Amino acid sequence: MKKTEQKYQTYVQILKEELIPAMGCTEPISLAYGASLARKVLNHLPAKIVVEASGSIIKNVKSVIVPHTHHLKGIKAAVCAGIIGGNADKYLEVLSQIDEKTKEEIDQYIEKVDFEEHFLESSKVFDYIITVWNKKEYVKVRVSDSHMNVVCIEKNGEILQKEKSIIKEEKADRSLLDIEDIYDFIATVDLIDIQEILERQLDYNYAIACEGLNDNYGANIGKVLLKSFGKDVKNKAKAYAAAGSDARMNGCELPVVINSGSGNQGMTCSLPIFIYAQELKVSKEKMFRALALSNLVAIHEKSGIGTLSAYCGAVSAATGAGAGIAYLYDEDYQTVIHTIVNTLANVSGIVCDGAKASCAAKIASSVDAAILGYHMYKNGQEFKSGDGLVMEDVEATIQSVGRLGREGMKETNKEIIKMMIHE
Predict the structure, then answer these.
(1) The last residue of a domain, from among 159, 186, 209
(2) Which of 38, 51, 138, 298 has the most neighbouring CB atoms within 10 Å?
(3) Distance between CA atoms of 394 and 154, rounded to whole angstroms?
(4) Radius of gyration of the chain measured on its C-alpha atoms
(5) End-of-domain residue from the set 114, 131, 159
């Protein structure tokens, strides 16, 4: 693929848009970002806050710890942290500058502020409105479709269309992604165009994985894997990816580099590639090409599923990792696509019931399935067209899984949300 081609430039831009830092689970962090923006425009400490959120936002915020909040969970914690200590200019690292004194201020503010949260009836799975008041003045911020896509800021009845804080996310066209061209791109890309963002992804995500293994977070899935099953490359790949999630879901105050709007997916895409690259002693160049392959495959799959779904994003991310691992072994295009199909045929039934400690276990299971999918094909085995969701080729299979996650699991998502909020 030539640098001058539209797809080349689009693929580079997609990686730049997707592989960005975030501190904490991205749904509560998005709420903190929106709240910080609202306070900035109001220019006063709000006495009253009303949050209206779509079901998938509620689901993904309910059970995960918000960083820099003394291990608090939920919408109120995320929003109040954004109000008191957030810096909207830091985007998804909005809470990164909170110190111990500010944590105490957040605790005090949570106790005294007039706070309401409501279910938002919306056609969008990712949608929330934060309205803040100080006496008779108010500001309303609405974020839809993705974590920083601010669609409206309203102050005292006036729509602030020219407000500098509004970020309209103009994204590169994800419909240009397909597996054959992704494979061509990673084989020909000039690494100078993408290496910096890939290095940052590995640096950040490996650091939080090590933190997850060195301390006590959640269910400690990473530690359990290493203690129970040893340190062979397959188990380490699963353990490090899981350990990053252990830490991130349970209050660790280190950033990660995300994929498809998710830190868990960013770690699942990257950490198995790093572990296998170390084991196989491949060149840095080969590692970065494998990492680009992993990320782009995951983004391609998740684009069809949507931002939030009842379909677990660890599956699409691990499928990318499986493709990248095959590339590290010097396998050809056919092996890569069969690894993808074999993985999707195995674990596409894992549901997303929000962000919390068990995400680490789902990551481990998904990475295991991806590695199995690779070894299946190397041993002459594959899932074939007509086997459930497996279609005539890799693109059709990805489309079928996308349809499952986007359309087929809508009612599943609704039922999960009802059960989580005890309706």
Answers:
(1) 159
(2) 298
(3) 45
(4) 21
(5) 159
Domain interval for residue 348:
174-420
Q: Per the domain annotation, does 228 fall within a domain?
A: yes
Per DSSP, the three-state class of 137 is strand
147 and 189 in a common domain:
no
Q: Residue 272 belongs to what H/E stretch?
A: helix 263-280
In this structure, what CATH number is given to the domain that contains residue 129? 3.30.1330.90
Asked if residue 101 and residue 143 are part of one domain, the reply reads yes
Residue that has been written with the tokens 């806050």 in this structure: 49
Please check whether residues 179 and 151 belong to one and the same domain. Answer: no
Q: Are 323 and 341 in contact (CB under 8 A)?
A: no
Helix (H, G, I), strand (E, B) or coil at 118: strand
- 208 shares its domain with 109: no
Q: Following CA atoms 408, 412, 413, 419 in sequence, which dihedral angle do they give, to the nearest 10 degrees? A: 180
- Strand stretches in 338-383, DSSP E: none
What are the angstrom distances between the C-alpha of 317 and each of 33, 195, 241, 369? 25, 20, 11, 12
pLDDT tens for the chain, 423 residues long, are: 889 999 999 999 999 999 999 998 899 999 999 999 999 999 999 999 999 999 999 999 998 999 999 999 999 999 999 999 999 999 999 999 999 999 999 999 999 999 999 999 988 989 999 999 999 999 999 999 989 899 999 999 998 865 444 555 568 999 999 999 999 999 999 999 999 999 999 999 999 999 999 999 999 999 999 999 999 999 999 999 999 999 999 989 999 999 999 999 999 999 999 999 999 999 999 999 999 999 999 999 999 998 889 999 999 999 999 999 999 999 999 999 999 999 999 999 999 998 899 999 999 999 999 999 999 999 999 999 999 999 999 999 999 999 999 999 999 998 998 888 775
Q: Are residues 99 and 234 in the same domain?
A: no
- For residues 66 and 75, is the Cβ–Cβ distance under 8 A? no
Inside any domain, residue 130: yes
Alpha-carbon distance of 384 to 376, in angstroms, equals 12
- Using the structure block, give the residue that is written with the tokens 């914690």: 77
Global pTM reads 0.92
> For the chain, how many structural domains are there in total?
2
CATH number at residue 392: 1.10.4100
Do 47 and 178 have their domain in common? no
